[in-house]
Batch of 4 targets.
Target 1
Amino acid sequence: MGKDVIVACDFSSKEQVFTFLDKFTGRKPFVKIGMELYYAEGPEIVRQIKARGHKIFLDLKLHDIPNTVKKAMAVLSGLDVDMCNVHAAGTSAMMRAALEGLTRPDGSRPLLIAVTQLTSTDEDSMRRELLIDRPLDQVVMSYAQTAKEAGLDGVVCSPLEAGKVHQACGDGFVTVTPGVRFADGDVGDQKRVTTPEKARELDSDYIVVGRPITAAADPVAAYERCVKEFVG
Ligand code: C5P
C-alpha cells in the first residue's frame, strides 16, 4: 500500500481553500473535502480542486437506507474523486449498496472506506445511548471486519488501531488515520494523537492532517515535514 499524507481542507469557502492551495506550487497534496466545504460550495468545489491536479478524499460519511446511499454514491462517483466514505453503522446491506452505486459502468470506482466509531464517541456514551456494551476497540474491530466482508477497501481509525485492523482484515485493507500532530506542535481538541513518524511505525496507510498544516505559519513546509516523517 502506497503511503500518503491527506490534507484536511476544513475551510468554509472556496476563496479560503484556493488561497491555501495556491501556496503549493510544487507537489499537489492529496486533499480531504469534508462536509463544511462541500455544503458551502457544492459539487463544483470538488471539480475545481480535481482540475488543479489534486487527488480527493470526499469525506461526507453517508448513512441512510441502502437505496438512498446507492443513488447518492452514483452521483458522487461522477465527480471522479479518489476516496469516499460511509458509516459502518449503516450495516453491510448499506455498505454493499454504496459499492454498487459507486461502481461505474467500466467497473472502476473510487476507494470506499468506512467510519467505525467516531472519535467523539466514548465507551460511556456508546453504552448509555447506543446500548453497545462491548469495549470500544472490540467494536471498532468488529465494524472493520463487517466493512471488509461487505467488500469495502478500508476504514478510518486511530493510528493506534491501524496494526490491529491490518491483522484482522489483511495488509491490503486501507487504514486512514486522523489525530496526527508534530512532536513539538499543539494537540488542540484531538485526544489520542501520534506523530507522523509514529503513525508510519504503527502501519497507517494514509494520515489525515488538518490544522498542523492549514494553521501553520508555513503550510508548505509543514506539509513537506509531514511527508518526510510519514513517507520517508
Ligand atoms: O485539524 P485536524 O488535524 O485535527 O483534522 C483532522 C481531520 O480529520 C478533521 O477533518 C476531522 O474532522 C477528521 N476526523 C477526525 N477524527 C475522526 C474522523 C475524522 O479528526 N475520527
Target 2
Amino acid sequence: MEKPHLLILAPLAEFLMLELTNHYHCHFGRTADELEEALTNAGDQISGVVGNGGSVVTDALLARLPAAKIVAINGVGYDGVDVRACAERGVRVTNTPDVLTDDVADIAVALVLMTSRQLIIANRDLHSGNWAAGTNRLTHKASGKRAGIVGLGRIGKAIARRLAAFDMQIGYFGRHRQDVEHRYFDDLTELAVWCDFLIVACPGGPQTFHLITSEVLAALGTTGTLINVARGPVVDEQALIVALETGGIRGAGLDVFENEPHVPEALLKRSDVALLPHVGSATSETRGAMAQLVLDNLEAHFQNRPLLTAVV
Ligand code: 8YV
C-alpha cells in the first residue's frame, strides 16, 4: 500500500519527524510559501494534517484538502483549528491531553516562585559577582498565599494540587462550579480581588480572547501577580504592560505571548517579570509521549481503528 500523504504544518521534534517520514509521505506547510507549494502540488492527495498548538487549520484550508480526514495536533491546545468546520466536513481532530499536564503545572509553579522570590534577578546578581545584592534584596513569600486559577481543567487541577502543598488557599473561576474542595468564583474580577497569584490555565480561542482585561488586572492589584501558562491571547498583553508600568500589579510570569515568538520590548526590559519561551511541555519525556500519541492516533485513523484522543 502506498504511504498516506500528510501535510506537516509546524516544525516538529526530530524523532517525531523521523517516524512520520518513515510511515508517511510528508509535505510541508510550515511557512506560507511552503504551504502554497504543497497545496498546489499535492492538495488532492493529502489525507491527513499534522500541526502543533500554534497551527491554524481553517475551513478554507480544508477546502483545498478534499481527501484530508484527520488533523492530528501535537499539543493539548487546538485553538487554531476550526473544529466546527472539521466536524462539518467529517474531518477528525486529535490532540495530546494528559501526557503534558504535569510539565505545564510544574512550569506554573516555577513561575510563581520565580516571580515572588525574584529568582531571575538573584541569579543575575550572583553571575555578575554581586552576591551581596542578591542576599540583601527582600522578596515576597509564596507559601501560604492565595492562588486563583482561571480554568480548573486537567492542568488547572494539577497546579492546584501542587500549590496546596505550598499551603496556599485555592480559588478558581470557570464556566461551572466543580465538585472540588476549592472555592468557586463565578466572577473573574472577584477571584482577582481575592487572590495573590492569578494563574491562567484555560483553553485559548475566541471564547477566552482577552479574558484578562485591564479591569481584571486592576482587581488583582498592587500585591497581585499574573501567571499565564495557557495561551497568550487570553491576556490583553497591552493592558498587562500598562498594569506593570503603572505599578498596578506586582509582577507577571509568562510562558506564552499574544504573538509568539514575538515578545514586546516593554516586557523584555522589565525586572518584575519572568518570561519563558513557551516551554510548558518541553521535556524529552513529555515531548516523546506527545509524539507517540500523534503517531498512534494517525495509525489508528489509517487502520480504521478508534482514535485514542479525539476532539471531534
Ligand atoms: C506546545 C502547547 O507548544 O500543548 C499545547 O497546547 O502549547 C505545547 O505543548 C506545542 O504544541 C508542542 O508542539
Target 3
Amino acid sequence: MSKKVDLLQMVEYGGCSAKISPNQLEEILKYLPLPKDPNILVDIDTHDDAGVYKVNNDLALVLTTDFFPPVCSDPYEFGQIAAANSISDVYAMGGDPVLALNIMMFPAAKLPMEAYADILKGGFDKATEAGVRIIGGHTIDDFPPKYGLAVVGYIHPEKVITNAGARPGDSLILTKPIGTGIILAGHRLGMVSDDDLTEAKRLMKLLNKTGAEVMKKFNIRGATDITGFGLAGHALKMAKASRVSIRITMKEVPLIGNSYNLIDDGCIPGASFRNLEYVEKDTDFASDLDYNLKMIAFDAQTSGGLLFSAPDEKVNEILEDLHTAGLQNSKVIGNVSEYKDKFIHLF
Ligand code: CO
Ligand code: CO
Ligand code: CO
C-alpha cells in the first residue's frame, strides 16, 4: 500500500459529476454521423448505456467505456469504484461483462507510483469480482488523474434491455439509494459523518450484478443505470426512447444517510444544476414539490443503481428477490404511463 495520498485534493468535481453537461453533449452528437449497419442493435440514438453489435443469431457484443477523476481519497477505493461504474453499463443492458481494458490518466510527477499501482489493483479486484478479465490498457501522463475501463460483454441478440423498453402500466424500481453527489460535496466541506461516507462508498463499489440477475430472471426489457445525469436525467432518456411519460414520487426515493438535510447546508454540486437545465423543459413539477427532493432528483450519481420498468403484477416478487440478494433499499419509486403533456412528472 502506498504512503498516505489524498486524491480528492487534486480535483474540484470527481466521479460522474465531472461529466460534460447533457445539453452540450446532445449539441455535439447532432453533428456525428451514425454508422449504418444492420448488425448494430443499439447505438447512441436511444441514449443507451452501451452499444450492442450482433455477431450471429446467438451472440451480440455489448461495448461501453467510462472514466472519471477521483471520487474518494484512497487510490485503491477509487480504482474499485471506477471499475464498478464502468462495468455497470453492461449490466444495465442485461449483458454479461467479459473483458476490459484499463484507461488511465496519471500525473507521474505529482503522485507516487504506488498510487498508480493501487488504482489499478482496485480496478483489477473489482473486475475479478465481476468475472471480467482486464487484458490491456493505455496510460497518458495527465493531471488530475482519471481512471476507468472499456468493457466488452456478451448478450443474446433478442434479450437486450434498453431505454426503449418501458411500457405504460409498468412500475419503476430503483435498486440503490440516491445521494452520492450530495454526500461527496458535503464531505469536502467536512459536513458528512463517517458512517454516511462509508455507506456512500460501499454503494459506489457495489456491482449492479445482482440487480441485473434479478432483471434477467423476470425478463425485464426497459432499464438504465443512474449515473452522471441523475435520477431524473436518466429517467428522461428512458421516457424519450420508450415514448412514454414517467412519474416519479420523490418521497418514495430511498436516500443515502443525511443527504436530505445536507442540501439545506448548501451541499448541491454544480452538476445538479446542469442536470436540472437538461431535464427542465420536459418535466412537469408538482406545485408542492419540496425543494430538497427536487434537487435530489438531479443529483449526479457515481456508480448508482439500476432503474427498471417492471410489470405491476411481478413487482412484489421482484422486490423480494432484490431484498434477498442484498439490495435492501430497492423500492418502487414511480410508474410509466402513456405519454401525456411532458416526459417526466415529478411529485
Ligand atoms: Co449508464
Ligand atoms: Co456510463
Ligand atoms: Co495505445
Target 4
Amino acid sequence: MNKKMTIHSIQQAKHKRPLVMITAYDALFAGLFDPIADIVLVGDSLNMSFAGKADTLSTTLDQMIYHTQAVGQGAKNSFIICDMPFGTYTTPELALNNAIKVFQETPADAVKIEGGSDKADLVSHLTHNGIAVCGHIGLLPQSVRSEGGYRVKGKDEAQTRALIEDAKAIEEAGAFCIVIEGVKADAAARVAKAVEVPLIGIGAGSAVDGQVLVFSDMLGLFEAFTPKFVKKYLNGAELVKDAVQTYADEVDSRAFPDEMHTY
Ligand code: KIV
C-alpha cells in the first residue's frame, strides 16, 4: 500500500509525476479508490450526483461533514479534501469558523475554496490558522447562477492573464495546491508554469500537474449530462441497470434464490 501523501509530498510531486485525484462521497467507493488515488475530494458535486439537485448551491456544511466522515471511514490512506459549500466562506471569520468545524468533526486534511484573487485574504486567514487550503479557479460551479451557466475560461489573452493572477494570488496567500476547471488547455498550461504549487486540472487539458474527475461521471453512473471533458472508463449505469433487471427477472421467475443461495 502506498504511503499517505502529505502537503509536502503533494507539492514535491509537481515536477515528478501527475497527481491523481478523484471524488468520493461515501465509505464504499472511497475504500475502492483509496489504494489507487493520491487525493480523495469530497466535492460539493455530491449535491448533484448523490442528492439529485440541479447544481451545487444548496449543499450544506452539515452534508459536507457527514459525507467527509463517511469517506474517512473508507479512505484511510488517502489525503482527503473537503469542499467548503456555497455561502460558508463569505467572510474570513465565517470561513475560519466553518473550516474549524470541518477539521474538528471529520478527518479532512484540507478544505477547497472556489475563487481567485478575490479570495486571497480569506485563504491567508485560513492558512495562518492551521487550515490547509486547496484553491479552485477557472470555471466555478458555485457561480453557475450568477454567471448564467457553466462558462469555459482562458479563451483569450485577458482571461488567461486573469487566471494567472488568480493562481499567483492564492498561492501567495498559502494555498498548497489549486484545482483548475473548465479552462482551455493552452491557458491552463501557462497557469501551471506560473505557479510552484501543483495545478490539478478538470477539463483543463493535460499540461497541468494532475487530474481530478467526479467518480460518478468517470464510471458512467451519472446520466443527466456528460461534459465534453469527461471520459467514461466504465459504462456503469448500463451495467447496474442490466444487473438489477436480471435480479428482477429472476425474482419474478423464482430462479433466485437457487439452492446455492439458500440456507
Ligand atoms: O465538487 C467537485 O466535485 C469539484 C470538482 C469538480 C473538482 O469541485
